């Protein structure tokens, strides 16, 4: 996608006051998140002109979609685990013909142990869809249960959350797992959200560390709704990115360098 297309897709979609209302944890930054107004940044010893308009625009939309800052400046090229080829081709294939995937409500399930890069793979998809102008939202299962429980007494908050999760073009649900607090939520919330989405052909992308048989025994309804619609991608190898990034961050910080938001 060209810069002009992304700007066109995102411009005017989210004004600052709406952003600050929906995302109180991350107020709108007054300076460029990458260069802090210097209009250039250095990466790997090379100086680059900073596209401050694009950097600010992307960050605002990533935050509004609840995508954590740690995923803003890493993209598919940075995936270096042993599952790289499989993950990269699954992500690229899903995005290549997304209009058609969207038409049929098709999603992806990234399954595998902790630390294999599942959330990273999902973030890559969601960020690309944001650039295409889609309405996306990412929520961890943990956050969903907690918010649901605390909103129990406040019907308006609960309704807002439920409406958002049901109606967003593409929902990313991160780290679905067994949780003994989830009983009341499951009875009223999780099934109903997924049921509503599949009934209206809205894609849901999930990550889970649960094996397929465990998922279908703990969450039978959700599993039977999603399994015909979601491509199942199993990640088995260690995501080397974490170690690599830890080293890279030290290096970038020591050299006063910045990685742009992508
Ligand atoms: Zn800048």
Tell me what the structure shows.
This protein has helices at residues 3-10, 16-22, 52-64, 84-96, 98-104, 118-131, 141-150, 155-167, 182-199, 212-218, 220-226, 241-255; strands at residues 40-43, 46-49, 107-111, 136-140, 170-176, 204-208, 230-234. The protein is built from twelve helices and seven strands. The protein has a five-stranded parallel beta sheet, with helices on both faces. The protein has a two-stranded antiparallel sheet with strand order 1-2. It is 50% helix and 13% strand. Helix 8 packs across helix 9. It has 262 residues and is an alpha/beta fold. Helix 9 links the parallel strand 5 and strand 6 (204-208). Zinc ion (ZN) binds at residues 32, 34-35, 39, 50, 52, 55.
